[in-house]
Structure formats: structure tokens, C-alpha cells
Specification:
19% strand, 10 helices, binds manganese (II) ion, 6-stranded parallel β-sheet, 6-stranded mixed β-sheet, 328 residues, alpha/beta, globular
Length: 328
């Protein structure tokens, strides 16, 4: 079986390494954070020297996760950081790990574990399972298959990662196996209510009010099939909020019955704009994200551009209209 062979090769590469780097895509999401922390626990249990370095702000939503303080920002790395092995999780290509790339040298072997359909197999070993809901699902399956004793903390971070990457067990990618593995994680101590509340029901009052403001300004086009939202710097200041607190906002673009495509525009410092795209059914928003150098999945994708919010908004509006019209 190919999976078992991959597991064995992964273990061999780990055994041959003294110093191991774990990383993921910049501005890590729940899957990135949970998968990294789970891998960290596994390698620690094997007695390895291991460090996690990431680039970019991580949402406050994940800071409650056990072991979160083990994730270091790339700015804290010194020239002395040398790694025999890098385990890159949930990142479809090496550019997406950002500046962490600078910690790799020609001697560093790379294990790539991912579930993105556009993964380009950049590793010396690639465990890419497109049918998996999340990278954490791949890891959970692996840990059970190889007999790694999953403790409560590891179960918690894996469960949180699967929960968030499936949109709370809602996306198409949620299969029977996803639920079975989540169930096994509950058996190992993951607490569904506590984890879900800590991630999704932990807004500050300012965030709740700002959410109301953003929703009040929703724009619907193409007979209500496309919904667009925006968060500007001015609004953030007014409500005393941080941009990274609004990772869940894109989901609101699809809460309306007829809306099948959504876009959330966030104003970034330095005249840049982050665009998050969402869709229902077979409408593929990753094609739109690719137009601007981004990536993602069929139903969830995104990109950052060096353009003012109002300018990129007009362009994306046309792209999304085209996407909806082509599907009629
Ligand atoms: Mn993922």
C-alpha cells in the first residue's frame, strides 16, 4: 500500500535527522496551526530537536490551542538555525511558506504533507492526499495507522484543524472518514463544544459591532447570486479591531439563499488588498484567484494584490459576474 510506504519513508527521514523544522503557509489558518502543533508533539515524542517557524500573523482564534507558544515568528530566527529536515504542512508550494524558505539550504530534505489540489510536489517526499478534508486529516489517519498514541493535546489541535478546514464539517470535502477520525479524536480527549466555542464564539464587542456594520454594507449583484463585503482600515480604527480577527468573515458572503459566489475585500497596509473568495456547488473560485497570483480550492480561494481596494473590487466583480453567467 502506497500510504504505508510513505509513512515508512517519512519515519526513515525523521530518524536520519537531528534537527527538524516544521512550517506551513504564511498567515496560518486553523489547519496550518493544528497540523504543525500535532507534528511537533509527534516529533518531540520521538525525542527530536524540532522547531516551528512561520511567517505572518495568526488569528487570535487559535491562540488557545495547547502548545501554541511553540510557534515562532520567522523574525525570531537567527543565523544559527540549521535544519536537516523540513516538514512543510498544508502549503501547496514553497513560495507559500514565505521567508521561512531562508531557513532551508541545499542540505535540507523536505517532506511535503498537503491536501491542496494545486500542490506542486515540491518535496523530496510528497504525501499529498487531495481527497482529505485537511492536512490534519492526513496526519490523524497517519498517526492512527502507525500506532502513535494521540494524547489529549494532540487530539485537540487535530480536531480544531479539521473543524476549521471543513467549515465546521460542512464543505464537500467532509467525508465519512473525516467524521470517523474526528470521532476517534473525541475519544482521545478533544472537546467539540469547547474547541468550537473557543474558535467561533470568542469575538470582542468591537468585532461583533463591526461585523454588523460590514454586513449592513453588503452589495448584491447578478440577481443576488454574488455578494461582496469589504473591511476598510477606517472601519477597523473606528471599532478598535485588528484585521486578522476577521478570518471567518468571508463565510458571511454565502449566508443569503441565492448567493452562490462571495468576495470579501480587506484593505491591507501599503495600498494592498486581500481578497477572499467563496462559492457554493461547482463554481470554481480558485480560477479567479489564479488570475491574480493566488490559489486555493474550488469553493474557497484567495489572493493579495498591490492595488487599492476599490480598484480590485471592480475587476473581481466582473470576474465573478462572468463566473456566474458561464454557469447558467
Ligand atoms: Mn488545509
Amino acid at each position: 500500500m502506497k500510504l504505508m510506504a510513505d509513512y515508512k519513508n517519512i519515519r526513515d527521514m525523521i530518524d536520519e535527522s537531528n534537527s527538524i523544522l516544521i512550517t506551513s503557509h504564511y498567515s496560518g489558518d486553523g489547519d496550518a496551526v493544528g497540523s504543525q502543533l500535532a507534528m511537533f508533539n509527534y516529533l518531540k515524542q520521538l525525542g527530536k530537536n524540532v522547531e516551528i517557524y512561520d511567517e505572518g500573523e495568526i488569528s487570535f482564534q487559535y491562540k488557545f490551542l495547547p502548545g501554541f507558544s511553540n510557534i515562532k515568528d520567522i523574525s525570531e530566527a537567527t543565523g544559527e538555525n540549521k535544519f536537516d529536515l523540513a516538514i512543510v504542512l498544508d502549503s501547496s508550494n514553497l513560495d507559500r511558506i514565505g521567508k521561512v524558505k531562508e531557513l532551508l539550504d541545499s542540505q535540507t530534505k523536505i517532506i511535503n504533507i498537503d491536501h491542496h489540489p494545486d500542490d506542486d510536489h515540491f518535496g523530496d517526499l510528497n504525501l499529498v492526499v487531495q481527497s482529505a478534508s485537511s492536512t490534519a486529516e492526513i496526519l490523524t489517519q497517519m498517526f492512527f495507522d502507525i500506532g502513535f498514541e494521540i494524547d489529549k493535546d494532540t487530539a485537540t489541535v487535530l480536531y480544531a484543524a479539521i473543524l476549521t478546514d471543513t467549515g465546521r464539517f460542512r464543505y464537500e470535502s467532509t467525508g465519512r472518514r473525516t467524521m470517523e477520525l474526528a470521532g476517534l479524536l473525541i475519544e482521545r480527549g478533544a472537546a467539540p463544544r469547547k474547541i468550537c466555542d473557543s474558535i467561533y464564539f470568542a469575538n470582542s464587542p468591537g468585532m461583533t459591532r463591526l461585523t454588523g456594520k460590514v454586513l449592513n454594507n453588503a452589495e448584491f449583484i447578478a440577481d443576488g447570486k454574488v455578494c461582496m463585503l469589504e473591511i476598510t482600515n477606517q472601519l477597523l480604527k473606528e471599532y478598535d479591531c485588528n484585521l486578522e480577527d476577521f478570518v471567518g468573515m468571508a463565510a458571511y458572503t454565502l449566508t443569503t439563499k441565492d448567493a452562490v459566489v462571495g468576495a470579501l475585500f480587506k484593505e491591507l497596509p501599503g495600498g494592498k488588498t486581500e481578497v477572499s473568495l467563496r462559492s457554493k456547488n461547482i463554481l470554481n473560485v480558485s480560477n479567479v484567484a489564479h488570475l491574480y497570483g493566488g490559489g486555493g480550492h474550488c469553493n474557497a480561494a484567495g489572493f493579495v494584490v498591490d492595488m487599492q481596494l476599490k480598484d480590485i473590487r471592480l475587476k473581481v466583480m466582473d470576474n465573478l459576474k462572468g463566473l456566474v453567467n458561464a454557469s447558467v
